[in-house]
Amino acid sequence: MKIINTIEEDYHIHCLQYSDWLSSIDDIIKFWWDIWLKKIAITDHSQISLDHSWIWKKTLRQLVLNRWKNVWNDMEVIFWIEWDLLNEAWDICENIQGREG
Hints:
The chain starts with 8 loop residues before the first strand and ends with a strand. It has one domain. It is an alpha/beta fold and 101 residues long. The radius of gyration is 14 Å and the shape is globular. The longest helix has 10 residues. Helix content is 22%, strand content 27%. Strands 1-2-3 form a three-stranded parallel sheet. It has a two-stranded antiparallel ribbon with strand order 4-5. A two-stranded antiparallel sheet has the order 6-7. InterPro entries: Pol/histidinol_Pase-like.
């Protein structure tokens, strides 16, 4: 297994807008910048997880992607989806609200 995060990166952070975390995207950006992260990925649960668990939809993902902008610092922020393994054949769910990651 290859770990792709460097000491200045984190590619698996959940947020309030989409998922089961309590911090907003802006709060995450400000906090992680203060501890020297330079790049993060907001990676929330796929649609299959939202449909088959207690996690409920909060904000339309596309609305946030179209309007949100990092105005706090120079951190690079990408948005991605936590892929879910669907079966033993390694089929995955890689979409949320009808859009692929």
